Amino acid sequence: MPDATTLLAAATNQQGPGDTLRVLLVVLLVGAVLLAWFLLRGYRDND
Prior knowledge:
With 47 residues, the chain is mainly alpha-helical.
């Protein structure tokens, strides 16, 4: 009987890059939104 790590590795190899790309896109999108918010808040008129 194979152990859990062998089964997990086999299942991961069969899924392809879909989950990894999805996580990467979400992280990039959140990072872009935070960067835009950080840069644009300096242009706010606080007078």
